[in-house]
Amino acid sequence: MNDKLTALRELAIPFPIPASFRRQAKAYASQYFTPAAQERVYLNTLAVLVADAYLRLLGFETNLTKQERWNAAHRLWSEANELELSGLGNLECCVIATGQESIIIPSESLSDAKDIRIGYLFVEIASSQQAATLIGFLPAVHPEITDAEVALADLQSMDDLADYLAQAQTTPINDLTQEFAERKITYLRNWLNNIYTAEWEPSMRDLRGATCKKKLDLAGQVFELQLSVSQSDDELMLVRVIVQGENTYLPRGMQVSVPDESDIYTETVNEVADLISIPLELLPGEEFWVELRLGEASIREYFIA
């Protein structure tokens, strides 16, 4: 076990699973058709009930009382692993086995698209099913990633989760977060773990960083968007955004924009140039986008650091 995972487990929260939780989970899982689905939903429901009990102890308001929440006929699309926090959104509860060190992030289909997913909570269920451990969490807003493996050592701690939710309670949902709720998102931290989605082509990898590129069609022309990602000693995510023409100079008047706190930073091609380069310093989990604009045409790519 590496040092990061050891430190994460030292801050993990052990929690008992009472018989009432097991009965409720079994009753709900029995509504599903196959033994495999019943077992999966049973464990997911245990994780949700444990997370619900723990978060209510911390003073957060949850909502497990909706009648449709416990009617599988209304939820056959669901893995039954979402916990709704009133006014905040859904927290997806991901079950891990004892000793497991990585997990596949659920796909977008696991959560109702009209609700905002605020993150993933990772819950270890003991083989006895009488105890659980809340290991850590990963902040997210409706990521559309499938089969992306995340190392548990890269999770944030349970202390961080409490702080994250407390801040979310006092912070109104901004326009950027609303925009992210229905967009395809690329997780840059995954690149540092050698995890890439199909549309991004890795072009460089070393001990501290990774660079990937993607071709974008805009106004009948092809451009290459390249992002270089590394992590500083103070945990900031260092990102350099580079935009190039495929075989020629960038067209005059082209703009590349990124969010800059409450404003937007834009670079414009006013003279002959073969690329635009924008450096960024981001907090882990921070949302941002890169927009390419040429005349009336524009395209945006969405990222979480």
From TrEMBL:
<dbReference type="InterPro" id="IPR014951">
    <property type="entry name" value="DUF1822"/>
</dbReference>
<dbReference type="Pfam" id="PF08852">
    <property type="entry name" value="DUF1822"/>
</dbReference>
<protein>
    <submittedName>
        <fullName>DUF1822 family protein</fullName>
    </submittedName>
</protein>
